[in-house]
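User: Major Facilitator Superfamily protein, Collimonas arenae:
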Amino acid sequence: MNLDFSLTSTMNDLKTAPTFQDSTPTETSVRRRSLIAACSAHAIHDGLTDVIYVLLPIWQAQFSISYAMVGLLRGSYSGMMAGFQLLASRLAKRWGRERMLVGGTVLAGLAYLVAGQAGSLTVLLIALLLGGLGASTQHPLASSIVADTYEAGGGVKEALSQYNFAGDIGKTLIPGLVGLLLVVVSWRASVTLMGLLGLAAAGLLWWLIPTPTEPALDRKKTGKTITGTGSVSGLRALLLTGTLDSAVRMGFLTFLPFLLKSKGAGTAGIGLALSLLFIGGAFGKLFCGYLGARIGMMKTVWLTESATSLLIVLAVWLPLVGMMAMLPLLGLALNGTSSVLYGVVPELAAAGKREQTFALFYTGTIGGGALAPILFGRLGDVAGIPVAAVTLAAILLFTLPLSWWVQKALEE
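Assistant: Predicted structure for Major Facilitator Superfamily protein:
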């Protein structure tokens, strides 16, 4: 009788034991997959965006266009990307973030396939407009995916800093890869390969991003959700802080090659200097995101922006050797602030408006970065590069009281 009871109990246990097919991903695995997907999307999209810098001189020679038209080609991609982010966040409410992000990546890949076959300037311009439209989905949707999946378990700011770090890795690797490809194959073949890379990335995202039916994070169970304050004044201050930070960063990057040239740097020296700055910037996004989570947003912004302002002034007056030595540190401070600011967006977003808030923030920062080279370039024409650079350093100090206002809104 004991044997019969034991066998019956064993059979019941086997019937109720979870099989491999029935097993569901844990919260940790969902968070990991979401972060890997967002980082992959950021790396691919930022790489496809910045590879245009490598291709512009080739397109200028291929289509015999002016510098104004070169600027239009570059601006068409970034302008579409900035202008349609808010629309992408609204459409994600209806069709889902996952579908919109994958669809945008597919569109960016197809745009590069079209660009690789472009036989006229008109077709190339249309392809870049389509690419920018596809890229508009990435920043607001991938950021909100990271924020949503990490808020219940904690570590949102650290996860967003990893997400931002991945974008800089893409900016470094993909343009570098195309630069090597151009040595052995034509620009058309290189651009076509980038299109295939975009389509492959879309397939990876489709597989990686957890579906709505998967048990992502039960926020009611954990009780660790981030409740956005919905502070309008705090969000305005944050947006202005991010816009000024982005404007100074892009303005300084525009002046840097000319500043180096005035100190005697050649083409190789300018390339090395930019590499040192970008390497420091990539690690700055990762480091400062973690620092902001430890000591707070305001203290980190005051530290990074004050250091950036001081180092820009030093870059103007130091000799070439001294300037080259401090560029990694300048890159760390120059890029690091953005990760801290991104981490605050979920805390200021109103309930149910996280995607729109991210979209608004990215629209402002990208827009500020696009306008700054034009405005401060004009100042450089009138007063000289050193005066324009010092002006940028002074303007950056306005972010200090603005960050105090953001902190006040967070505390309220």
